[in-house]
Write a structure and sequence with these properties.
The chain is mainly alpha-helical and 214 residues long. Helices cover 77% and strands 0% of the residues.
Length: 214
Amino acid sequence: MKLSVIIPFLIISTFESALAQNAYVRLGQQALMDGDFRSAVSHLEKACITDSTNANAMWMLGYSYYHSDNYKKSVLAYTKVIAVKPGDATAYYYRARAKGYLGRDNQASPADKELYLLGAIIDLTKAISINSDLKDNKYYQNRGIAYRDYGIFKLQNTSHFYDKARGINSLKASIADLEKVLADNPSRMDIATLIDQSKDKLIQATTGNTLVKH
């Protein structure tokens, strides 16, 4: 095939591929806005197959997986977003949220719980370091919860991953994060309840009582 024929063919093929990709993105975005996350997944998966470097489409796919309770795929999608946009705090935030759910799954192995719960803390810490909005407390709130969950996990003395010192430190970190949120908004009774829960677990740990399996 002559070069004069190949070049127009490539241009047309690329253009048609871009149109298809954009159509899937638009359909996926609309389904996401309508709260139809399963349809959004279907459209956005096709968009990301057409162009795996489209970080916006991949972000929406991760969000749609998250709200479809498909947390493992959400983690994978946001990992791809971070590879393209390492400064996206929201990608770390939702990856952390998905990891948190996976870490609390009673069917997960202790090794997976360690991986996911610690991973959630690391991701939220990264999101906090990137996020410039000092009034946005959802990062601290969710890290406080992640610290609590990890602390309880580390204090289960029937687990191979038992580590009393790390468990106690995680509960203290949980309280510190949650108290920061409450200080900014004293009317948050839900946060006050979470603080009390972490303090109760901390008292159990420091007085030598065995924690109930979480």
